[in-house]
Amino acid sequence: MMTVDWRRTESMACTTEFIEFLCEALAPLGDVRSIKMMGEYVVYVNEKCVITACDNIAYVKKLPCIEELMKDAEVGTPYPGAKEAYILDLSDRQLVLRVVAELWDVLPFPKRKAKV
Questions:
Q1: Burial bucket for residue 54 (CB in 10 Å: 0-12, 13-18, 19+)
Q2: pLDDT of 29-64, one tens digit each?
Q3: CA 18, chain centre distance (Å)
Q4: Do 58 and 99 meet the contact criterion of CB atoms below 8 Å apart?
Q5: What is the rounded end-to-end Cα distance, in angstroms, of the chain?
Q6: Alpha carbon separation from 44 to 1, 3, 50 (Å, rounded)
Q7: Do the Cβ atoms of 102 and 65 come closer than 8 Å?
Q8: pLDDT in tens, 85-107
Q9: Distance of CA 34 to CAs 10, 47, 60, 88, Å?
Q10: How many Cβ atoms are within 10 Å of 41's Cβ, its own excluded?
Q11: DSSP codes, 18-63
């Protein structure tokens, strides 16, 4: 497994084309939306945050449920201080859909903000 260091190149924001491509690839799983956060994005599928996208790279949490599926995947950190994550190979759409579906089953829904 190869680790990708976030310092490998100068940081660049995700392109809208990359985010559109990523969201289209996930569309078979349901409602997909992205939220821009400080030049980068988080991608939600059916209201669960499943992907962090930075520098046109899609990262997913390293969880036991996808360990076997991602055994050959590169790993890296999406930003300084982040935990190491798997990097999705977007050229294998079937694998991407399987990984995200497995993650979706175990990831929590976001906590609702209390109304003041």
A1: buried
A2: 999 999 998 879 999 999 999 999 999 999 999 999
A3: 12
A4: no
A5: 46
A6: 26, 25, 6
A7: yes
A8: 999 999 999 999 999 999 999 99
A9: 23, 10, 14, 16
A10: 21
A11: HHHHHHHHHGGGS-EEEEEETTEEEEEETTEEEEEEETTEEEEE--
For residues 71 and 86, the answer to whether their CB atoms sit within 8 Å is no
Give the span between the Cα atoms of 86 and 17, in whole angstroms.
21
Element (H, E) at 17: helix 16-26
Output the pTM of the full model.
Answer: 0.85
The residue type found at 77 is T
pLDDT surpasses 80 at 6: no
pLDDT in tens, 61-92: 999 999 999 999 999 999 888 999 999 999 99
What's the pLDDT at 10?
53
Q: Let me know: does 32 contact 103? Beta carbons within 8 Å.
A: no
Cα(112)–Cα(90) distance, integer angstroms:
31
Structural tokens at position 100 = 């995200």
